[in-house]
Design brief:
Layout: H1 6-17, H2 21-40, H3 44-64, H4 68-81
Length: 86
């Protein structure tokens, strides 16, 4: 739910799917299990390489659009991930 709180998720489930809080909680738990399973096999070095690649792509796109503050944020984020800065 785009970072919403549990109560936001329950309200959404009630309004859109017609379910109560208990069923919404079951959906939330199942979603967490799926997310956990998606990420459980990822190696740390593989994940770092993928994130660094994404930072690089975003930084290039930001420069092309003249959004230098976003490009700088990507550079800083990549450096922090690589533990080059604190």
């Amino acid at each position: 739910m785009r970072g919403g709180k549990r109560s936001d998720c329950c309200l959404y489930a009630s309004e859109n799917w017609g379910v109560g809080d208990r069923q919404a909680e079951r959906y939330i738990c199942r979603a967490r299990d799926i997310i956990r399973a998606d990420w459980s096999d990822v190696q740390r070095d593989q994940m770092m390489a993928e994130i660094l690649s994404q930072y690089s792509s975003l930084q290039l796109a930001a420069r092309e659009q003249g959004q230098l503050h976003v490009a700088l944020g990507c550079i800083h984020g990549a450096a922090k991930l690589a533990q080059l800065v604190v």
